Amino acid sequence: MAGIYIGSTSGFSGKNMVVMGLGLKLQKDSVSVGYMKPVGAMPAEIEGTAWDEDAYFVQDVLGLKNDAEALTPVLVTQDFKVKAFSGQCGDLMGDIKAAYEKVSAGHDVTLVAGSGSMYSGKYCNVDGVSVAKELGLKVIIIDRFQEELKYDYLMVMKEALGENLVGVILNDIPPSFMDEVETMLRPCLERMGVRVLGVIPKDPLMGAIKVSDLAERLGGKVISAHNKADKVVENFLIGTMQVENFMTHFRKNKNSAVIVGGDRSDVQLVALEGNCPCLVLTGNLYPNDIILTRSEVLEVPIVIVRDDTYSVAKKMETILSRHKLRDVIKIRQGAQLVSANIDYEFIKKSIGI
């Protein structure tokens, strides 16, 4: 009975994408797949039961039916933190081992998803390194590009995990950095004994979000073209500059929401006529009738938010970098990215299947 722990160097690095992509690929090859997330940091009540939201979703995609306690034996609620910080955790590792035995029974391989980074949960001894060692799991670590890659961290993981480290996946790599990854970082990591299992290129669709979801996350509301609130936003532009300068940037950034003050009708009109996916108007200022009419005619939704432009831009940055895979189209795209860019055969060989 094989098991793989899929962890990462930081939160929001693509663990769910890799788990689902790898799991669906294995299932397609007639491999029986189990799944669990030992430590859940996203508690949510679903149909009267406390689950980890991500684990519940991934299990559903993989077609599995474990109960909440087996799927995520350690759920990090506020009550849990109070007990943990006061040294009243109990035998958490024992709970995890018992749950792993239950969810892995009858499966060829069990995918075990990490939470946060490989050291998240150290305060109560349920960090990724400890869990993987205790369960005797092979480990794959994802490092997502965020200004740079955490190559030092990956080398430390090799020291911490030894032969149990199957390798690493470098995720969300922009085209401008790809050459450096292939000519410098990959050879360097592999010289240090860290096998690079795959390099997944940046895909705008994976960070995209529907206008309706964006409005909800920003604490705003859609006030026009409601029937087009399922349009997808991949990026954003801030419309605080002069119209001429804004037009130059706008032409280069399609599928970008435009964040602009409610009193800047000049920029709003340019964005609408340029068919942006949506306008986000800040300061709780409503547009004039001309803008509203053009929005309806051109079918470009307008979202009104209370915050100032700078605050909204910071929120947008966080939302687009941390938006979850929930749409079918994104799950398919994520699975395709994983399947096309990782050394699937080496992973299978490393776990003996």
UniProtKB/TrEMBL annotation:
Q: Which InterPro entries match?
A: DRTGG, P-loop_NTPase, Phos_Acetyltrans/Butyryltrans, Ser_kin/Pase_Hpr-like_N_sf
* DRTGG domain boundaries: 213-317
Question: Which CDD domains is this protein grouped with?
Answer: DTBS
List the PANTHER family hit by this protein, alphabetically: PHOSPHATE ACETYLTRANSFERASE
Subunit structure, as described in the record: Homohexamer.
Which named protein is this?
DRTGG domain-containing protein
Organism in which the protein naturally occurs: Desulfovibrio ferrophilus
